[in-house]
Design a protein that fits this description.
This protein has 245 residues and is α/β, with parallel strands linked by helices. The protein is built from seven helices and ten strands. The structure holds fructose -6-phosphate (F6R). Its EC number is 3.5.99.6.
């Protein structure tokens, strides 16, 4: 595992964006896995700068495909905090990605279990994910694979941990509006990506990061699957690195 520790939270975004830009420069129709939440926002802002028309050595996202990690179950179509809406707002629009190439699990499907299984098939049909960008929850979740998730799990319906619902309440008008269930790529699905890139900023993530990097491989800390991966990079600021030995 490659560990990059930056001086500032903004620098995390610059380093991660450069790695992603490198993938797209070497393959214009790259398939990227994308995370939502706060952690990758600086990365997306930097990628938007790199892809802006008129930029020297511009990165062109027009042929790139993206697959989101997860989606809430049961939000109405078009809800501004659905991950479909977040992916559109934070990634597809600013980077100039073709909306037809943006994929998010269907959390409003009549049969969410079938939608989850279809999502894994869609990733396989696209040729697999070249680089999967990840954030991490304070309890160590990646995607919405909460502690005790099977290390070989595939995309499926999961129940959000109370701590995750509380942490994500900031995006909703009240905590009880945070959905209870989600569809998330499984840990096995995530591990199939040819490259993993995890970003984290702030002292709130220090404990989870220490377990990912230095702890034993354990379903208690789902992010520890990065230890199994032949091409995993962790980009963190000093605060997120503060729990490392
Ligand atoms: C989001 C996702 C989650 C977040 C995690 C951290 O698609 O899969 O694992 O990355 O909850 O969220 P933030 O970045 O908001 O602290």
């Amino acid at each position: 595992m490659e560990i990059i520790i930056t001086n500032t939270p903004e620098e995390v975004g610059r380093v991660a964006a450069d790695l992603i830009a490198g993938v797209v420069r070497s393959r214009a129709d790259a398939v990227l896995g994308v995370a939502t939440g706060s952690s990758p926002l600086a990365t997306y802002r930097r990628l938007a700068e790199l892809s802006a028309p008129g930029t020297a050595d511009r990165v062109d996202f027009s042929a790139v495909s993206v697959f989101a990690l997860d989606e809430y179950v049961g939000l109405p179509d078009g809800h501004p905090e659905s991950y479909a809406a977040v992916v559109q707002r934070e990634i597809v629009n600013p980077l100039g990605i073709d909306p037809a190439n943006a994929h998010v699990p269907d959390g409003s499907a009549a049969d969410v279990d079938a939608a989850a299984a279809e999502y894994d098939l869609a990733i396989a049909h696209a040729g697999g994910i070249e680089l999967q960008l990840l954030g991490i929850g304070r309890n160590g979740h990646v995607g919405f694979n909460e502690p005790s998730s099977s290390l070989t799990s595939r995309t499926r319906v999961k129940t959000l941990a109370p701590q995750t619902r509380a942490d994500n309440a900031r995006f909703f008008d009240s905590p009880d509006q945070v959905p209870v269930h989600c569809i998330t790529q499984g840990l096995g699905t995530i591990g199939d990506a040819r490259r993993l890139l995890l970003v984290a900023q702030g002292v709130d993530k220090a404990d989870a990061i220490a377990h990912v990097i230095e702890g034993p491989l354990s379903s208690r800390w789902p992010g520890s699957i990065l230890q199994l991966h032949p091409h995993a990079t962790v980009v963190i600021d000093e605060a997120a690195a503060s729990g490392l030995a």
